[in-house]
Specification:
Spore Coat Polysaccharide Biosynthesis Protein SpsA, Chain A, nine-stranded mixed β-sheet, alpha/beta, 301 residues, 11 helices
Length: 301
């Protein structure tokens, strides 16, 4: 079903770490990744023209671990483009993005890769997410994650469009790289992760493990869901002077594009396009599962 990696020297798993001014948490992130019980991977780091100590930290870790491969952008190319950059350089059968703000349980890679090995119909596997503050204190387990294991791609797509609020599946999980390629990687737009996740659901199943494996910073300095529209726009267009006039329109266009790209066959593409219309929601809602977080986890004006 899937095209296997043809590079004899490539490890089974590629990790991609896009980073911009990640000095506050980058060392903790790297320590948690390099301490994984599953160690047969390459780690691709792309520094998006950082102006803090990020380049120095990357060099220090790369000098100690041969699995790390470093890239530095000459200018800020936008967050989504940087996420795509590391994914496009992956050589393996499976891929995982790594957030420079977060940390990961030691067995994340070991546990998440097994369902992908065991079932060709699975394209993504992830564990539960513990939200943490800037000091690492626990704020609560995010209860909005879900699996999507129906054999019908439109049913999986419906589940994603109705239940997805945070992009934890792609931040916390391992993805089959060929499925990621078919979806076109990560769009350089707000909610590009949501578009991608919907596309992956059209290709294969999602498995959610019961263990907490991802520790995600939940603060307006780290989480785009807690930022105002102009701040978010500058993540993707660093020189933006105003937010887009129609904030959700790029996401809706992206849903149409991924419905054309991801499925194989005319009939499957037509069904996916019909589903984009049926399940369109022009609002961007924050998950109800975040409503009971303490004030430090919410947006600060």
């Amino acid at each position: 079903m899937w095209e296997k990696n043809t590079s004899a020297c490539a490890p089974p798993l590629s990790l991609g770490l896009p980073v911009f001014n990640g000095e506050p948490f980058l060392q903790a992130t790297l320590d948690s990744i390099l301490a994984q019980t599953y160690g047969d991977f390459e780690l691709l780091i792309s520094d998006n023209a950082s102006t803090d100590r990020t380049p120095q930290i990357i060099r220090e870790y790369a000098a100690r671990d041969r699995r790390i491969k470093c890239f530095r952008q000459s200018k800020n190319i936008g967050s989504g483009n940087n996420w795509t950059f590391v994914a496009m350089r992956a050589r393996s059968e499976w891929f995982k993005w790594v957030s420079a703000n977060d940390t990961y349980a030691p067995r994340l890679l070991e546990l998440c890769i097994d369902p992908l090995k065991g079932d060709d119909n699975v394209v993504l596997c992830y564990g539960r997410t513990q939200l943490i503050d800037l000091a690492g204190a626990w704020l609560g387990i995010y209860r909005g994650d879900f699996d999507a294991v129906s054999s019908d791609p439109i049913e999986r797509y419906r589940v994603v469009r109705e239940r997805l609020h945070l992009g934890t599946p792609v931040q916390a999980g391992i993805i089959r790289l060929e499925a990621l390629r078919r979806c076109g990687y990560m769009g350089n737009i707000r909610d590009g992760d949501r578009v991608l996740i919907a596309g992956l659901a059209l290709i294969g199943k999602f498995v959610l493990l019961p263990q907490v494996l991802h520790y995600r910073r939940w603060d307006s300095s780290c989480a785009s869901a807690l930022r105002d529209p102009l701040e978010v726009q500058r993540l993707y267009k660093p020189n933006a002077s105003r937010p887009p006039l129609f904030t959700n329109l790029p996401r809706q266009i992206g849903q149409i594009e991924v419905a054309v790209r991801a499925p194989e066959g005319i009939r499957a593409k037509c069904r996916a396009l019909a589903a984009t219309v049926r399940f369109t929601d022009w609002r961007r809602k924050l998950s109800p599962h975040l409503s009971d977080l303490p004030p430090m986890g919410r947006h600060r004006p």
